[in-house]
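Hey, resending since the last one bounced:
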Amino acid sequence: MIFYETGGTQRLPRTIGMSLAKELIFSARVLDGQEAKAVGLISHVLEQNQEGDAAYRKALDLAREFLPQGPVAMRVAKLAINQGMEVDLVTGLAIEEACYAQTIPTKDRLEGLLAFKEKRSPRYKGE
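The structure tokens again:
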């Protein structure tokens, strides 16, 4: 068996469910990339490129995808996800609501609404 002192017996069931977590922990089975993606442990499986930086390039692609999003909303979404995963659903929803409330008075929120109305991309400033 594995996972003691690293939090695996607590984190893995929350990620992939209790039944599969028990199976993996009790068997000490190691998953390959495709299996890990199939059970939700990872988001992407990549073939390595000739330069040896496929994962780095994918990370840059994701960063470019995140970059246009509002920094205030990104910050509170991250907070809501991270804190919400540590508590029950009702408490998590309350955390989400509190985080959303922080975006209401921001200039970025108004910019997002205006951009939607004008059918253009928003220009967020983190304010």
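The helical segments are 8-16, 18-27, 33-38, 54-66, 71-84, 89-103, 107-117.

Sorry for the duplicate.
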